């Protein structure tokens, strides 16, 4: 049972979490990956993924209502400790795999757009240090981060959008659906690694006090992020049309054709930097949950140990398996779709329904 | 309490320091003295190798020199990327391309290999793909070598000609790397870019520019100072289909094409030989706005390209004795002027269409429009659409009423 005086997060922070950290990691490589498969229908692929997450979130939010226990508590009550730990082993693997492509993408982004030469790997160490610090903290660090980072996310997005809109050819997304369902689904499938955000909310069950009308507020917050990203993919394709799939890093590319940028210089980097700042925390999320799960599954008492293991695994892959990035990306994007779908959407819905049923039973008793 | 506050301060300061490291490029810094800031690149082909000539702006720490100084270096390679790398290997300067705003292609390369050259710039993140592209009428490096009274760095002078601000004539079909490549990879596989020609200026205007006191000028610079006799013209446009140069729009066709595809405000054009009080006179009109539309309607009988253009103009000048017309007068357009202006644009838009049809370069994006707005008919016409295509042009030139 949870102690209602010791909620880790406030309701406001949960909503801000969805606005501040959900959209940013999808603004780098994901749009070009979608364009590769579904061309001008890339936004439909994004919409499909958001719809899946929206449905998942709906069930998760319902289970958050009247939650009497945290996620771990509820699962242990229902299935016992061993089964819960086995399930969480899979989630440990899920978060470690989920972090791979976006973190490598961030590394490539900084390396290729902010540096002239290929720099030493040291330049990326600060990210791991921040992520390590993040992993040491309680869940409330996510809430506090969201309280700050929502501002940088929104300002960054506004700057990028404002500079990009003038170069759009909105008719380039027509005809809608001409690429066929299979290509749209293929695009959606290959981008699961950037989605599955409703899952984070599952770990917030019992960690915050549910407000009146809370379902609507949380879903609306998520909807804001979804609309921003769907719009972003539309703008991206409308700016680049037939060569969109070749523009690996959408964020750097879409705003630079504005007349004002040609005259004054690349001040769009202010917006880009703000989004990069938010993205550091967004990318740390899977690492954070992986380290917490590791502590729980193997009953590790020292937070620094589980954080070191999780960050160490990512750092090793990034540094020593740098020659295999192509294969890793291919594997995560093309072969893990079903795995991501099951653990981001199917299992959270099932768990949420079980918890909701439990909550109902307890209320009835 | 005190130790907790020091700990918090330490953590905050560490995080700030880490972010500074992260974003400041400290780990990838190149010595500024070993960096060359490339302002323009000319690409030619010689003995099956790409010849890349880079025009470099040389910053000078002096307050007595008012002119930009330049240097030019040449690199060779089997690919454009290789030739650019070669520039650095020969000179010891790291070629920094972030400020390269102009890419010139030699006439010989433009015939078949323009896309092979420009693709490199569209793919790499180290060059701006918003850089302007143009074809030199001969060798591209010759154009960079030319001296002009407009600017000591010819690339800057060329950019002024190609990318004009509102208020200047839109007589150039300015294209950047991204637009060219997007056109090439579009369904119609068509693209265009301006051809830059040098025009000898009649008078030597070198005396009008400030003289350089620099002792470090290159040999070419000294030559330039003696012979600043060239201006540039980029009002003709080369057409490309499937990466090959297939046609050309002359300056009148380019002007008419710009009228229907770009913001034309501030552009002037003359209407000559209009009868006024029994004598033939010339009018100069300035365009205030140019609402236009290009639509494609396809049915079983064929494809119709509808081009609608309305030019709201004012009379800027009238070469007649006793005329009072000027921009400040708000005078209505004489009927003959309106008709002649309408005919000029109509004829030239039709000429553009005919050239497009002849060369297969789909400058009107008919195939894209067919795909986007007439998808049901797309499969019927996608492989061969020009023979079924006709044009319907409506031009209206309006003045003060």
Overview of this protein structure:
The complex is a heterodimer of chains A (365) and B (401). Chain A has helices spanning 11-20, 30-38, 42-64, 71-79, 81-113, 125-136, 140-164, 180-190, 198-202, 214-240, 250-253, 259-264, 268-297, 303-320, 325-335, 337-364. Chain A is mainly alpha-helical. The relative contact order of chain A is 0.22. The mean pLDDT of chain A is 88. Chain B contains twelve helices and 15 strands. In chain B, 33% of the residues lie in helices and 32% in strands. In chain B, strands 1, 2, 3, 4, 5, 6, 7, 8, 9 and 10 form a ten-stranded mixed sheet that branches. In chain B, strands 11, 12, 13, 14 and 15 form a five-stranded mixed sheet that branches.
* Overall 3D form of chain A: globular
Q: The biggest beta sheet of chain B, please? A: 10 strands, mixed
Oligomeric description of these chains = heterodimer
* Stretches with pLDDT under 50, minimum 5 residues of chain A: none
Q: How many strand elements of chain B?
A: 15
CA-based gyration radius of chain A: 20 Å
The 3D shape of chain B can be described as globular
Query: What distance separates the N and C termini of chain B?
Result: 81 Å
Hey, roughly how much beta strand do the residues of chain A contain?
under 5%
Give the overall average pLDDT of chain B: 80
DSSP strand count of chain A: 0
Beginning-to-end CA distance, first to last residue of chain A? 16 Å
């Amino acid at each position: 049972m949870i102690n209602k005086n010791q909620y880790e997060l406030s309701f406001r922070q949960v909503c801000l979490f969805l606005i501040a950290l959900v959209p940013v990691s999808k603004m780098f490589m994901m749009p070009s990956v979608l364009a590769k498969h579904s061309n001008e229908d890339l936004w439909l692929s994004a919409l499909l993924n958001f719809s899946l997450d929206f449905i998942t979130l709906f069930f998760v939010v319902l289970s958050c209502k009247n939650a009497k226990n945290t996620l771990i508590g509820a699962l242990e009550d229902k299935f016992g400790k061993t089964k819960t730990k086995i399930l969480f082993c899979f989630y440990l693997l899920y978060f470690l795999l989920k972090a791979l492509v976006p973190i490598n993408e961030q590394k490539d982004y900084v390396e290729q757009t902010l540096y002239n030469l290929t720099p030493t790997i040291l330049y990326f160490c600060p990210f791991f240090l921040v992520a390590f610090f993040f992993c040491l903290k309680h869940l409330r660090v996510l809430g506090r981060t969201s309280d700050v980072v929502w501002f940088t996310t929104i300002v960054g997005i506004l700057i990028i959008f404002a500079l990009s809109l003038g170069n759009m050819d909105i008719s380039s997304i027509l005809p809608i659906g001409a690429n066929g369902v299979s290509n749209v689904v293929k695009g959606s499938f290959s981008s699961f690694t950037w989605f599955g955000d409703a899952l984070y909310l599952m770990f917030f069950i019992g960690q915050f006090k549910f407000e009146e009308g809370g379902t609507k507020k949380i879903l609306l917050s998520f909807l804001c992020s979804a609309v921003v990203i769907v719009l972003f993919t539309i703008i991206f394709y409308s700016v680049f049309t037939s060569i969109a799939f070749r523009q690996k890093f959408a964020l750097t590319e879409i705003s630079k054709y504005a007349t004002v940028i040609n005259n004054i210089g690349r001040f769009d980097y202010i917006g880009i930097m703000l989004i990069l700042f938010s993205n550091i925390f967004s990318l740390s999320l899977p690492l954070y949950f992986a380290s917490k799960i590791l502590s729980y599954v193997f009953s590790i008492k020292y937070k620094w140990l589980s954080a070191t293991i999780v960050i160490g695994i990512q750092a090793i892959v990034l540094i020593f398996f740098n020659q295999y990035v192509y294969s890793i990306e291919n594997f995560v994007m093309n072969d893990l779709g079903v795995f991501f779908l099951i653990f981001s959407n199917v299992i959270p819905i099932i768990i949420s329904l079980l918890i909701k049923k439990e909550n109902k039973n307890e209320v009835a008793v | 309490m005190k130790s907790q506050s020091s700990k918090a301060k330490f953590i905050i300061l560490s995080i700030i320091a880490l972010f500074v490291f992260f974003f400041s490029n400290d780990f990838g810094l190149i010595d500024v003295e070993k960096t060359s800031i490339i302002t323009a690149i000319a690409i030619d082909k010689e003995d099956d190798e790409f010849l890349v000539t880079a025009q470099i702006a040389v910053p000078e720490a002096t307050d007595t020199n008012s002119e930009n100084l330049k240097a030019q270096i040449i690199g060779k390679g089997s690919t454009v990327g290789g030739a650019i790398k070669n520039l650095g290997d020969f000179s010891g300067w790291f070629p920094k391309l972030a400020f390269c705003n102009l890419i010139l292609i030699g006439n010989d390369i433009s015939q078949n290999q323009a896309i092979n050259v420009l693709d490199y710039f569209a793919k790499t993140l180290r060059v701006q793909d918003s850089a302007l592209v143009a074809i030199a009428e001969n060798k591209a490096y010759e154009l960079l070598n030319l001296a002009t009274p407009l600017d000591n760095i010819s690339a800057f002078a060329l950019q002024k000609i190609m990318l004009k601000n509102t208020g200047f004539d839109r007589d150039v079909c300015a294209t950047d790397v991204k637009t060219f490549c997007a056109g090439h990879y579009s369904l119609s596989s068509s693209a265009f870019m301006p051809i830059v020609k040098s025009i000898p200026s009649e008078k030597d205007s070198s005396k009008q520019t400030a003289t350089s006191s620099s002792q470090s000028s290159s040999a070419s610079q000294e030559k330039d100072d003696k012979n600043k006799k060239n201006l540039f013209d980029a009002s003709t446009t080369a057409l490309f289909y499937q990466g090959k140069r297939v046609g050309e729009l002359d300056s009148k066709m380019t002007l008419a094409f710009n009228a229907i595809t770009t913001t034309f405000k501030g552009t002037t054009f003359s209407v000559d030989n209009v009868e006024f009080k029994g004598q033939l006179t010339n009018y100069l009109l300035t365009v205030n706005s140019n609402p236009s539309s290009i639509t494609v309607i396809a049915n079983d009988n064929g494809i119709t390209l509808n081009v609608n253009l309305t030019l709201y103009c004012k009379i800027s000048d009238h070469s007649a004795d006793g005329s009072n017309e000027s921009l400040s007068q708000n005078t209505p357009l004489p009927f003959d002027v309106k008709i002649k202006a309408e005919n000029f644009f109509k004829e030239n838009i039709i000429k553009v269409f005919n050239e497009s049809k002849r060369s297969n370069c789909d400058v009107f994006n008919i195939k894209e429009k067919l795909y986007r707005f007439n998808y049901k008919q797309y499969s019927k016409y996608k492989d061969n659409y020009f023979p079924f295509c006709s044009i319907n042009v409506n031009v209206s030139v309006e003045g003060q009423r």
